[in-house]
Design brief:
There is one protein chain. The longest helix has 14 residues. By secondary structure, the protein is an alpha+beta fold. The protein has a four-stranded antiparallel β-sheet with strand order 2-3-1-4.
């Protein structure tokens, strides 16, 4: 149940997938708040971290990523990353 709630993003449905997120270390608390403090985090460089977490890929999930205004990106899987890029381009009027 706990893992489903963490993946559900406020009960909006979508396919569940393990998504790799790369993010600024200033967002570590936000990632822990969403996925739990037992989430395994990998250091990429001095300022960047990476995590692989199960989520329901949906507009609500993409909105959660958007709120961080470029400090977080979806690295994979490719389909989720492509959907995010397309939504970002639409949002920015590109």
């Amino acid at each position: 149940v706990d893992s489903h709630v963490k993946a559900a993003f406020k009960m909006h449905s979508g396919p569940t997938s393990r998504v790799t997120l790369c993010f600024d270390q200033s967002l570590l608390g936000c990632v822990y708040d969403k996925f739990g403090e037992d989430t395994k985090i990998e250091r990429v460089d001095d300022a960047t971290l990476r995590v692989r977490v199960p989520v329901q890929v949906s507009n609500v999930f993409f909105g959660w990523v958007f709120q961080f205004e470029g400090k977080m990106r979806i690295e994979g899987p490719g389909k989720a990353a492509e959907q995010y890029r397309n939504l970002r381009q639409t949002k920015n009027g590109i």
